[in-house]
Input
Amino acid sequence: MRSDLKSVKDIWGWTKTLGISLSLAILVNIFVLQPFKVNGQSMVPTLQNDERIYVSKLSHTFSYLPEYNDIVVIDSRVDRDRTLQDDILENPLLMLAMGKSDAKTFWVKRVIGKPGDTLEFKNESLYRNGQSLNEPYIKEKMVNVPDAKIVIPENHVFVMGDNRNNSDDSRVIGVIPLDHIMGKKLF
Output
């Protein structure tokens, strides 16, 4: 009888420990640090297809503005509001358990423009606030880019892939609301 009671207590102890550990892992994943997989060629040569990156979620959690040239993960569904429920249900651990993929939703891009900036595409070059950008990280010069001028509104950023001629980015979906920046690449 004593050994049965001890076994039940041991099982209950292990179950509690496992539950607490899993809960902490999910909380860290939602609010602090999250892995993402690069999908596609849009960040070549900086990042390769299927490369894993780890993203600090603190910028998303505390809603602070990324710096120029930061590599960020964005939610490309800019036509809808993001909620805490999205952050919880779109957690990679839960998505993996449900057999879902985030490849079409979350994009890895580089921050090019911040609120108040004027970006100008002219002569197949990019200018920010009248200054030509020095971009040693891009794969090749942009081609077939129509001339355009964009002013970045408050609480938004403009992002682009490093493989400019093969990237869906803010040129396609528009400016990105700050709450759609899921985090900043750490390593």
Notes: The domain at 32-185 is CATH 2.10.109.10 (Umud Fragment, subunit A). The chain has one domain: 32-185. The mean pLDDT is 86.
